[in-house]
Design brief:
With 179 residues, the chain is mainly β. It has a single domain, classed as Calycin beta-barrel core domain (Lipocalin), CATH 2.40.128.20. It contains two helices and ten strands, in the order H-H-E-E-E-E-E-E-E-E-E-E. It has a ten-stranded antiparallel β-barrel with strand order 1-2-3-4-5-6-7-8-9-10. Strand 3 and strand 4 form a beta hairpin. It is globular.
């Protein structure tokens, strides 16, 4: 009987701990928590103007790290080869900005993000700099926007800044939460 009482006390304590806000957690960290879960995605990518878009199906598993960070691991088949990606996102109150990184199994560049949330709290825009598509010896600016359409639907749009300063979208991914 004492064992059952001890288990009940421990279970109640564990449930209470989950409700305690993490030290340093902000509203921005709570926004990131909406991304946690299992997702499927359908993507279209256009790598060069005038070319037919490539279509891809993928999955993404997103987990929280201490309520302050998320880690998103993506899996797909790209050009017949397995593709894996890892994205980290958090919020840095000192910088007053979202921060993060991206790596994947098809490139050697470590992408670092800095971003902000729109006033409506629906779109997180992340900016990064990396190798230009047309000449990997020079860099270009990139922008990823994660838009929350609903708790179970998000859209990722990726764009590159052209030499004339305009932005061109090259990827759009429609994510649905697995049920």
């Amino acid at each position: 009987m004492k064992m059952i009482a001890l288990i009940a006390v421990l279970a109640a304590g564990a449930a209470a701990v989950q409700d305690i806000p993490q030290a340093g957690q902000t509203d921005q960290h709570k926004w990131l928590a909406q991304l946690v879960g299992e997702w499927t995605a359908t993507s279209e990518a256009t790598m060069a103007p005038g070319t037919e878009p490539m279509r891809m199906e993928s999955t993404e598993s997103v987990r929280s790290i201490g309520g302050l960070w998320i880690l998103a691991e993506g899996s797909a088949t790209f050009f017949g080869a397995p593709f894996t990606s890892i994205m980290t996102l958090g919020y840095d109150p000192q910088k007053k900005a979202f921060v993060g990184s991206w790596i994947d199994s098809m490139q050697t560049h470590l992408w670092t993000y800095t971003g902000k949330l729109d006033d409506a709290g629906k779109v997180l825009t992340l900016e990064a700099e990396g190798p230009a598509f047309d000449d990997p010896t020079r860099t270009a600016k990139y922008r990823d926007a994660i838009e929350l359409k609903s708790p179970d639907h998000k859209v990722l749009t990726s764009s590159v800044q052209m030499e004339d300063g305009t932005w061109t979208t090259f990827l759009k991914a429609d994510y649905r939460r697995k049920k």
